[in-house]
From TrEMBL, chain B:
ABC transmembrane type-1 domain segment(s): 94-291
Localization per Swiss-Prot or TrEMBL: Cell membrane
Principal cellular location given in the protein's record: membrane
Protein name: ABC transporter permease
PROSITE patterns: ABC_TM1
């Protein structure tokens, strides 16, 4: 029997299948790196969840404009006013409906915050409020007063982190999120896909995308291939290796900062000359275009340049091995044990080529006289070294860490990283504490100036850590789309920002 | 035979019980799930609330007691990360792994037995050499590389099949093809070796002398005697597939048990880990019993 015709017939049939899988018209497919465990609005500040939910299904009272220069703008709140004494009044948008048809009002806002702060559910956005106590007072259906204790000058900015759900939402994780956003979830097939469809009764301008299907592939080469073959339209995270097509691939700052956290309480890191030597030993430029992607920027602050108060006057520590050796010799002459073992601790898969970065750092440190070694650990073990309480009896440790702040204000970073009480702080400096507290309490231009002063202090005066790089991300966007990724794409992917060519 | 199956079943149940205790305590040694579930700057209060909500603040013995009581009702508890019953999560993944494993192993068995037997019959010939080379390549080629190359060639280059996913039967072609290669390589070599030994037996020479046709000689007289070692290898390969095909699942976005298990271990999602291991162990025990039955069917000495 001649099987040739059957075989080739089958092959021809398959060729007609693949184009059929591609999306048509205004429907798009987004391929993400990890599946969502939850589709819970109060977890939307977690990046993998936020990319699907934030401002697509669920909206917030305020929103940070990362595309333009409008700063903080209203979303579900039309305006807000500082009433003094830590109280802010928010005027809410009218004629807004949730996707279940119910009306949005101030009671929904109150309930949403009640859920976030409830001890019956572990909501991620709670962390941004730390020890701040909020009291919500409904003035009328479209006005709500929110009092923060202690007073919180960036309360309107914090409102951009809490998604609003209807008052009927139970205080437990939901699987069918209801929001006021331009899209509603119509399908969630675990392990396969999530589908959002545009709501025609959305209060704002209708977005161009009518339907978005999210699929999940953990291998970046496959994500890139899916856009190339037309199976998907956007792959927000691919690697530099795949980002080879200038027509479809974008490289952009992704709000991640890589640094070496120095624990100053363990010898020899308590000595500022040793910390300066450490910084001078690192040839930061050598990493870019070799083990790190082109476009990576040298960091002078824990937060990216788009953050309030970022200080343009700061310059990266110069690579000067001879000066580093001189500082170490000076410290040794004064009795500092500069030969004490130093562990460089890095997390596997923290960012592309993290192991190579760790190896190179160790080599550079040892070249000037440090006694450094590298330890690669997995995420849970890394957390033990990165966050307090630090292990007892530890040697000097330099933790390679990556920190993300696309929220626009350094308050989400500086307390945790530099205050003596900060969870990941290796600093115990009263002046740094004072500056952080002053900047946190300040508003307007004074706030920017205070943060700027703090950035200079930790970078130049106390050399608190070894700031290394502002990282870049790579995305592949299908040629039929009119969309450019931004610094916020790590955290959210607003479908309403996507157009068609 | 029923007695033998009964003994096997009792031994399997005892093993499951031991596994149940071991997995519970060993998984607790791996760390605190609150650290991984919550963001790095979560407050200590948030971590304590998380532990309280999931009963992780209780003494370990008390947690074990709750676990045993729940297990008697087939309740593995909720997934810490997915906030729904762990058993549902695992069974959903199995619904993908089982057909993938069944289809692939069926193809492996048929292809390996036919090609291995024919190669053994034509030992030293062109066909034998070709099968040997293909099987050696199959047994030693890395899954990851094959999968990526297959996507580049058949999806991007030729556009014949989708790159990944599970939406249509076309989506299954590449995962099955990639998963097929390694066990096929191993099993075909075992079939060939086993058949070579069987074909040199006196009863085969007698059958040849009596003029029995080649196909009947291979597939009726010899194969049954050459199958015992083959069944052992097939059992091993099938067990590996029931544990999930992590690489294939990862690359092709196949929502099976292998990736779920690895992710759950990394995320300290204890309840899912426990449910996955218990269900996998159960599946492997059932398969071992089936293999024992196959042995006894093929070899009357075992049956008696």
């Amino acid at each position: 029997m001649n099987l040739k015709p059957i075989f080739f017939g089958a092959l021809m049939a398959t060729t007609s299948i693949v184009p059929a899988l591609a999306q048509a018209n205004t429907d798009i497919t987004v391929v993400l790196s990890e599946e969502l465990d939850l589709v819970e609005p109060c977890m939307a500040t977690r990046s993998n969840i936020g990319r699907v939910i934030m401002q697509n299904i669920s909206e917030t009272l305020t929103e940070l404009d990362v595309r333009g220069d409008k700063g903080l703008t209203g979303r579900l709140a039309e305006s807000w006013e500082d009433l003094g004494d830590g109280t802010w009044q928010f005027k809410l948008r009218q004629n807004v409906k949730f996707s279940d048809g119910s009306d949005f009002d101030a009671n929904d806002v109150k309930h949403s915050f009640g859920r976030v702060f409830s001890d019956q559910i572990t909501c991620e956005s709670k962390r941004y409020f730390a020890d701040t106590q909020l009291t919500l007072d409904v003035v009328d259906p479209h006005t709500i007063n929110i009092k923060a204790e202690p007073a919180q000058p960036i309360l309107p900015l914090l409102m951009s982190l809490v998604t609003i759900v209807p008052s009927e939402t139970p205080v437990e994780f939901v699987r069918e999120p209801i929001g006021t956003g331009p899209y509603a979830m119509t399908d969630w097939t675990a392990g396969q896909q999530i589908v959002l469809e545009r709501r025609d009764d959305y209060w704002g301008e209708l977005p161009a995308v009518t339907k978005a299907t999210y699929v999940f592939r953990s291998e970046p080469a496959v994500r890139a291939a899916m856009v190339e073959t037309g199976e998907a339209d956007i792959a927000p995270q691919i690697t530099e290796l795949e980002a080879t097509n200038p027509e479809t691939d974008f490289t952009y700052p992704n709000s991640e900062t890589v640094y070496l956290r120095i624990d100053q309480t363990v010898e020899p890191m308590g000595d500022i000359r040793v910390r300066k030597a450490l910084n001078a030993a690192i040839d930061r430029e050598a990493f870019i275009g070799t083990v790190l992607a082109e476009g990576t920027e040298l960091a002078t602050a824990m937060t990216p340049p788009t953050t309030l108060g970022w200080n343009p006057d700061l310059k990266p520590h110069a690579f000067d091995p001879e000066q580093a050796k001189a500082w170490l010799a000076e410290a040794e002459a004064d009795g500092v044990n500069v030969k004490a073992p130093v562990e460089v601790i890095a997390r596997t898969e923290n960012f592309p080529h993290v192991a190579e970065v760790g190896e190179a750092l160790v080599q550079m440190l040892n070249d000037v006289g440090f006694n450094a070694s590298l330890r690669m650990v997995e995420v849970a073990e890394h957390e033990q070294y990165y966050s307090k309480p630090y292990p007892e009896g530890r040697p000097a440790q330099l933790v390679v860490a990556q920190h993300d702040n696309s929220r626009g204000d350094p308050v989400f970073s500086m307390y945790f990283k530099y205050h003596s009480q900060g969870t990941q702080s290796g600093v115990n400096d009263p002046k740094a504490d004072e500056l952080i507290e002053a900047a946190t309490a300040a508003t307007g231009e004074e706030r920017a100036a205070r943060w700027s002063e703090l950035f200079a202090y930790v970078h130049d005066e106390i050399v608190a850590d070894a700031l290394l790089f502002h990282m870049v991300g790579h995305s592949r966007v299908g040629e039929r789309l009119d969309f450019k990724p931004t610094i916020a794409t790590n955290q959210q992917l607003q479908l309403s920002e996507i157009g068609f060519k | 035979m029923i007695k033998m199956i009964g003994q096997r079943a009792i031994a399997s149940i005892l093993s499951l019980l031991v596994l149940m205790v071991l997995v519970f305590f060993l998984s607790r040694l791996t760390g605190d799930p609150a650290v991984l579930f919550l963001p790095i700057d979560a407050t200590e209060q948030m971590k304590e609330e998380f532990r309280r909500l999931h009963g992780l603040d209780l003494p370990i013995i008390q947690q074990f007691w709750h676990y045993i009581v729940d297990l008697t009702q087939l309740d593995f508890g909720d997934s810490l990360r997915k906030a729904r019953p762990a058993l549902d999560v695992v069974l959903e993944a199995y619904a993908w792994t089982l057909p993938l494993a069944l289809i692939t192993m069926s193809l492996v068995v048929v292809a390996a037995i036919v090609l291995g037997s024919l190669a053994a019959f034509n030992v030293g010939g062109f066909f034998d050499r070709l099968v040997s080379i293909i099987s050696l390549i199959g047994a030693s080629a890395p899954d990851f590389w094959i999968a990526i190359v297959a996507i580049v060639v058949f999806s991007i280059g030729l556009g014949w099949v989708p790159t990944s996913g599970v939406g249509t039967p076309w989506h299954w072609i590449l995962p099955i093809a990639v998963l097929f290669i390694r066990p096929f390589g191993l099993v075909v070599q075992v079939v060939r070796g086993s058949m070579l030994s069987a074909l040199s037996s006196l009863y085969v020479k007698t059958a040849r002398a009596k003029g029995v046709k080649n196909t009947r000689l291979i597939f009726v007289h010899t194969l049954r005697n050459g199958m015992l070692p083959v069944i052992t290898v097939i059992g091993d390969q099938a067990a590996a597939m029931l544990n999930g095909a992590v690489i294939v699942e990862t690359i092709f976005g196949f929502p099976g048990i292998g990736k779920l298990m690895i992710d759950s271990i990394l995320q300290r999602d204890f309840n899912v880990v426990l449910a996955a291991i218990m269900i996998t162990a159960l599946a492997i025990f059932v398969m071992n019993i089936l293999i024992d039955i196959a042995y006894s069917v093929l070899d009357p000495r075992i049956r008696n």
